[in-house]
Amino acid sequence: MFVVEIPGYRYLDVNQAAIDNYGYSREEFLSMSAADIRIGKEKERFLSEAPEIDPHETFNRGIWEHVKKDGTRILVGINASDIEFEGKKARLIMSLDITSQKEAEDKLLKSEERYRHTLDTMMEGVQIISFDGTIIYVNDKLASQAKFTKEEMIGRKLPELYPGVEQSPIYQSYQKCLNDRQPVHFENKFEFPDQSVQTFEISVQPVPEGIFVLSADVTAKRELDEKVRLLNEAIAKSEKRFRGVIESSHDIFLLMDANLNTIYRSPSAKRSVGLVEDNSAEHRLSRVHPEDVPSYNQSCERVLREKGVPVPISFRFRHYDGHYIWHEGFLTNLLEDDAVKAVVANLQDVTQRKLSEQLLEKSERVYRTIASNIPGSAICLLDENLVYTLLEGDMLEKFGYHKSDLLGKKVTDIVTPDREEMILGIFKRALAGEQVRIEDSMAGLDTMSSYIPLKDDKGWVYGIMVIIIDVTELKKAQRELEKLNLSLEHIIEERTAQLISANKELEAFSYSVSHDLRAPLRGIDGWSLALQEDYGAQLDEKANQYIARVRSETQRMGDLIDDLLKLSRISRTELKPERVNLSEIVWTISERLLEENPGRNIRFSITPDLMVRADAKLLAIACTNLLSNACKFTSKKEVAEISFGQTRYEGKTVFFIKDNGAGFDMATAKKLFGAFQRMHRQSEFPGTGIGLAIVKRIISLHQGDIWAEATLGQGATFYFTIKDKS
């Protein structure tokens, strides 16, 4: 591609393809005119054929002969359009080397002796079709274009190869030439059975055998033509359009003068580093990271010395808000280029890439640290081609390897033939995204190996991490444990028998407590009542108080025996889980408590329909104890407020019963759920001290937890969880 000044045809700009093809440097081109790459009559023809061209259209200038720097002559096809370039009237010339195409056309004119060889080696597809439609010759190129082999095509007809082709323009053009015996030349897009579409330039000539078909796949050429057309349109646009493209780019563009002061900054620069209030080189240097200043200065000094040579640069630049941004790119000295007259900086924000590299380096350091500090282990990293990229750990030496033996080598270079099938099978599973763990034996050691796929953000596996741990001692211990388990089974059988015997004794004791202890207590209570009724009038007030105290303590002892029996029975109860509406249980208990306390103002707040799968009878006992306690400890409040609900704690569903009563000191909360433990004096709030122990047993049977939070004088909240028994 060339841009020449009109008139005079002096080169204003050339692209890299022109430099590569013609052999002249950019500086040499810019000192020449378009006539200098022509000689003899071609130069005269060029100077005489210089028509005015419509700037809105591309003009075909035909085929010309050019001369390269080394004297080689080439044939080129020329398209041109007039443009405005840097304020000058100019012409954009697109040059396409068609030398090889012309040579191929000349070969067709060779003698009959070379005819078939020429056809076979042509870059275009060739086929000869007989009058009855049978293919009697194809060359290799045609077979490739048709997506068949030559053997599959010769002797067959097109409808046999492409069912339905009779309706296509190609087939109809072949028939027309067969019938009319007139040449046909056309271009056509052909859709193959696999739904791919290619564009062919086809020439059909009548020959004695039938028709001769020459086809050229011009799909790429048409795409190139389209690109050239779009390029011509882009070049013809105004400088404003060009600036718009630059300013919408994510890359950072800077233009600097000979003192490296900024004369243009693309908007992407502001997006990357924030506000820059000073365009001077000194201010820009002050925002470069101190560690990067030496290399930054070296790049700046080098670009001023080396003209036209891209100089790499990498540095961190302080953002307006204080953090640093990584920039990488090139500086190019184009101060002597009339079209630019500046030092051009083309930079990219590579902060994320640098952070990723740092994270990767940190990860590798972590792997090395872990493997180096865990005796009897090894960590290996392999890429997707199963090449070792990192190895750490003392297990390598136990296996008889050194890092240098493995780094950079593939698994197949190391694994022994007898293990290759197994090991490659494991790696194949890991590359498919599966984490594989195996137990193995290597070099006389028992090992446990994990093959972990390493995935990117999109889930693609880019490598594998292998962790190998020496479990020889563990295996030995397991074998010893198996022996121990055999002896333990006998011990467990003996202990089970002892436990059964102890349970029977406990049941006998419970029966004795329930019947034998109650009889004396009933006697004490009965004789005390008889004494009071028969001789109460003869006793003074203090003696009557003593009798009342004896009866009260006797009844309290009876209550204590009842609670102990309840606690004993609950410990031996078998759970019968079912779907339970805990809110309805609490509602029933609250109704009963309101009936038992008719003179009190008690307000219950119950969250409806809180469901749980558990033993309904045991939960009713637990909730009765908790709600009764709430009623008891709010007895001194004018308005008692008791609430039941549900919340979340550490990811678990938690139920709670809360009151505004007496509360307790959290310093004594550890003994709250023990038997006979009390937080208040008997004279303040009477009770046996067994209720919360019963609640604790019931919650433990459900594999749940219970705890309390309270403030003295401001109430208490009891929380409990129930493990789902589904």
Radius of gyration from CA coordinates:
48 Å
Q: Can you tell me the overall shape?
A: elongated
Total count of strands: 27
Total helices: the number is 24
Low-confidence stretches: none
Major sheet = 5 strands, antiparallel
Mean pLDDT: 80
Proportion of residues in helical segments: 40-55%
Structural class: alpha+beta
Record the strand order, biggest sheet: 2-1-5-4-3
N/C terminus separation? 78 Å
Proportion of residues in extended strands = 25-35%
Q: What does this protein structure show overall?
A:
This protein is α+β, with helices and mostly antiparallel strands. It has a five-stranded antiparallel β-sheet with strand order 2-1-5-4-3, sandwiched between helices. Strand 6 and strand 7 form a beta hairpin. Helix 21 runs parallel beside helix 24 (691-701), helix 22 packs across helix 23 and helix 23 runs antiparallel to helix 24. The radius of gyration is 48 Å and the shape is elongated. The model has no long low-confidence stretch (mean pLDDT 80).
Features:
726 residues; alpha+beta; five-stranded antiparallel beta sheet; 27 strands; 42% helix; elongated
Task: Produce a short descriptive summary.
This protein is α+β, with helices and mostly antiparallel strands and 726 residues long.
What is the element layout, followed by pairings?
Elements lengths: L1 E4 L5 E4 L1 H7 L3 H5 L9 H9 L10 E9 L5 E13 L2 E10 L1 H9 L7 H7 L3 E6 L4 E4 L1 H7 L3 H4 L4 H4 L7 H12 L3 E8 L5 E11 L2 E8 L1 H18 L2 H9 L4 E5 L5 E4 L1 H7 L7 H6 L6 H13 L5 E8 L5 E11 L7 E8 L1 H23 L3 E7 L4 E5 L2 H4 L4 H4 L4 H4 L2 H15 L4 E7 L2 E11 L5 E10 L1 H64 L5 H31 L6 E4 H15 L5 E5 L4 E4 L1 H18 L6 E10 L2 E8 L31 H11 L4 E6 L3 E6 L6
Parallel strand pairs: 22-24
Antiparallel strand pairs: 1-2, 1-5, 3-4, 4-5, 6-7, 6-10, 8-9, 9-10, 11-12, 11-15, 13-14, 14-15, 16-17, 16-20, 18-19, 19-20, 21-23, 24-25, 25-27, 26-27
